[in-house]
Each structure stands twice: as structure tokens, then as C-alpha cells.
Amino acid sequence: MRWILQVFLLLAVSPGTTPAASTRLDLTIDPVFPEAPLRLDSLAWENSAGETFSVTRLSYLLSGFALERADGTWQEFPGTHAWLNAGSRRNAVQLPHVPADTYRAIRFHVGPPPEDNAKNGAGFPALHPLNPNLNGLRWSWQGGYIFLALEGHFRRVGAEPQGYAWHLARDPNRTRITLAVPLDLRDPAGLQLQFDLASLLNAPRPFSFNRDGSATHSREGDPIASALTANLPGAFRVHRVVSANPVVPSGTPVRPLDLPDKITPWRFTVSRTFPVPDLPRDNPLIAERVTLGEILFHDSILSRDNTISCSSCHQSRAAFTDARPVSSGIEGRSGDRNAMTLFNLAWKKQFFWDGRVDSLRAQVLQPIADHREMDDSIDHVCQKLTASGEYPAAFQAAFRSPGITGEKIALALEQYLLSLTSHDSKLDRALAGSAILTEDEQRGFELFMTESDPRTGQRGADCFHCHGGPLFTDHQLHNNGLISEDTGRARVTGLAADQGKFVTPGLRNIALTVPYMHDGRFGTLEEVMDHYSTGIHRSPTLDPNLAKHPAPGLQITAKDQAALIAFLKSLTEEKNLP
Questions:
Q1: Residues 181-190: what's their mean pLDDT?
Q2: Considering the chain, what percentage of its residues have pLDDT values greater than 70?
Q3: Confidence grade of residue 248 (pLDDT, cut at 50, 70, 90)
Q4: Vertex 10: Cα angle to 5 and 80 (nearest 5)
Q5: C-alpha to C-alpha distance for 50 and 568, rounded to whole angstroms
Q6: In the predicted model, what is the mean pLDDT of residues 183-208?
Q7: What DSSP character marks residue 140?
Q8: Where are the beta strands (DSSP E) in 133-252?
Q9: Which H or E run contains 569?
Q10: Strand pairing of 189-196 and 22-32?
Q11: How remote is the C-alpha of 92 from its chain's centroid?
Q12: Which CATH superfamily is 426-576 part of?
């Protein structure tokens, strides 16, 4: 089954007015350890067991907000959810339309209510806190959300750092937090809370990575999950009550850029299991721009010497890659990274292997100006397109104004690339009941989605942490244990904590996107399996979900590797096969 998202015009909706007898509460929650602000990626914190550790990820969901009146009754705010994430400094929640009154306590829950936890997440709007593509906390085929994700590295005395990944989930572990605090909300106010990681790890149940283990997925009876739920209520505390910041007007509503009078809406069709994407509201999909973008994508006029096009490095027969370790530009100039597939970019948040660009329309212009690729200027390309026979009319049909500009080129290319979706593989059909996975493919699916945790007797390949969900990517940047002179994300940020981190590629059509990794070093899926089984290079920035396993990898048997490869090949759409 499929759901269809059709976007072509944005309707301006007048903001609702706040009732005269209501106000708002601005809530912020700052992570600390124990009093100082939490610094991510710093192997400097110490728990009660004397183990040094760092935090690389702290991400969690809140719901069930309520305020207690002086008479003991509770003012609840049903349907209010929040996603907080230390890595992106997302720490604020706003409770609007609060009855103007005095209150003596606040409560909320870590984790969504059971009825929302049971939903597959695909129906939530793009910017809703429970949209899986936004929060990265949905377990997809395993079911339910991760309520709290705490990951990082730890070091025992005299030993190399290892990774830990604690994921609190499942309905019995939803935890209520109640904090006493006098609040006079006859005027807007701000409440600042702190989430103390020292309390979370120490009281009333002290943690030890060495004793308790480095991973939990909150299975029934797991002692780590039990300890986390016991410690959570004491980990939140009131810092102070402050005056609320004034509400900043949202400004002019987002309107489509240069939309012509006559348009043909483009039907954006994907699987109903996919989360709702945050499509550009100022560039709604229309057939005229998608068609123009497709023509531009395949035209070598975008390069200085008119010899290569976007499709030279992103060929449809190779699932929009080029089957080379690294791509070549004009005059045979060589790049240093592998061409990434272009499917399902509507859900992507950062572009290029190092995530240096955060919008698709900005990404598409960079290869044109790159000396190693097309080596032309945007102004010169606009001149060539204006002088051509067919393009002025095509731009006139796609945009209200006749001139050809770099912005219009970017908007058209953005639309064509957004139209490239992949959602009809053998696995998708099997999940819909119209196909059957082979025994090896089913075994590979199970391995892919299973944690490897000897402490609990689980043996899996643990792929889903970075490649989970229907898109088979978390869109994050990770160090996956390669030895490379390419510093990855650190080349952009200059931070040692980003050394060797690259964007997680999606795995759909992976049988056609050979070779693999950012530099195309692996020519087969068997080589990829060998890397994760026995070739992991340990470093301070190795992803915790890899660093928690013994060096040099998961030691996956040959039979299980073959099953994993069979499963990965089931992610290829038949329409993309040569």
C-alpha cells in the first residue's frame, strides 16, 4: 500500500489568538554533570565506580505534561510531546494556553504514551517531535520508540576506550517525573530545569560499565533498564524560575518562490511506512520544474567545456552512482570521494559525505563550481542556458519571471532530485504480503535488526543502529572504523571529535551502488562484511555502537555474512536492475 503526498500551494493560516485568561510556560531542560554544563565528546567525566566516560549522544522524548494547582488538581496538556537532543542543543518546550493561575508542581513523562508508542510513526507531520526522520528514535520493525538514548565511550583503568549504548524503551519503562516548584502563571514565565547525568548514573542505583554492561535495548528483566527507570526521577531538578522571553513573531508566511500562474502539481509517492518528509515549502513540487530539473541534470552544458553532466557521475543504471571508487570531472580530473546514490533525498538533512551543506538546493550548485568536477561559474552557465534554443521557454514555464538565474537552476534541480524515490524492493513487497523472503534473506533480516550482546545471549550483526528504519539510514555522521587520510566531518568543523565521521548512506539498491564507503575502497559486499567482522580500527571517535563490541569487530560467521548479503540484495528495486 502507498500514501501520496501532493503539495503545490501553501495556504496562509491566521494564527489563533490566545484566550485572555491564559498564558504560557517556556520550559528549558539543560544537561549537566553534576553542576557544570555537559560537554559532549569529552572523555572527562567519572562515575562512582571510578570509570572515565564521555557522552556522544543524549536524545530523549517527553510527554504527559501537567501542572498541579494549589488545590491538588492537575491541569493536563494532552497530546503535547517534546524531543530534546543535546547534540543539536534542542532543549526547549513551550506549553501554550496555560490557564492563568498559580501552581505548585510540574510533571511529565520520559517516553510517549502507549497509544503513541504503538504507532508506526509514518503519519506524524514532518516537524512533529514523534516523526522518526526528525528524532531518529524509532525502532521501526522492532516496534516502538527509544525513550532515552545515551551513548558514548568509557575507559577502564589501564585499558583502551570502549563504547556503550543505552537505549531505554518499551511501555513498562515509561517514567514519570514530578518536580515541586511554585509557579505564578498569571503572566508568562520560564522554568529552567536541569538533567543531571551524575544522578542518572549514581543514585539510587549506581552504574558501572564494567559490571552492568555496555548496551541495553530494555528487554524484559534487563537490569540496566531497571536501574535507569529507578534513577530517572531524581535526575531532573528545578534550576530556577525566570521571566518568559517575549514571543518572537513568526514573520511573513513562507510562500512559493516565483511560482507561475499555470502549474501542474507533481504527485510525490512513497511507501506508507516512510515518515512524512519536510518538503521545501517555498519550492512546492510541480511537473514543470521537475521536468526542467531532469533536463538540466542530464545536460553537459552545466560544465565549462560541455563534456560532463550531473548524470555522468550519477547514472540511473547504477542507482544514480557511477561505479567508480571516486568520481572524475572535466579533463579527467579526479575527486577524492565516491558518488553517493540520489534516492530518497527528501528525508536527508545534510549533504555530501561530510555533511557540509544542509539544503539540497545549495548542494546542487557546488559541483558546477568545483574545479575537480564541472569547473564553471554559475553566471557563465546562466549565459549559456539563455543563449540556447530550448531553455528560456522551459524556464518561463517553470517560473513566473523569464530570466535564468542560479537560484532557478537550483530550485529546478532540487525538484528533480526530490522526485527520485525508492520504496518498492522485494523487502517492501514481502512486508506488504505480496512476496516471500528466502530463508537466507529472512535470516539476514533478523541479523541486521538484532543487537549483538553476549551479556544477554543475543548474537546479531547490529546494523540497525545506523541503518535502521524504512530508509535504511539515520542520516547522521559516524566513524565506522576505517583507516583513512580523509578526516571527514573534521575537515568542515575542525573539531577532533569529528575525526573520520561520514554521513551514513542509505542501503536501498545497494547491490547496484558498488563500490562502497566514502572512498570506494570495497569492491564487493563481501569486503564490507569482512570490515565489520574483523577490520574495525579503534580510535577515540569510533562510533559507540561499534566501539562497544570487542576488537576488531563482530566476528560474523561466513554463513551469517552470506545471509546478510542476501538480505541487502533484497533492498534493490527490480525497475533499477540493468
A1: 93
A2: 96
A3: low
A4: 75
A5: 42
A6: 92
A7: G
A8: 146-155, 162-169, 175-184, 189-196, 215-216, 236-243
A9: helix 558-569
A10: parallel
A11: 19
A12: Cytochrome c-like domain (1.10.760.10)
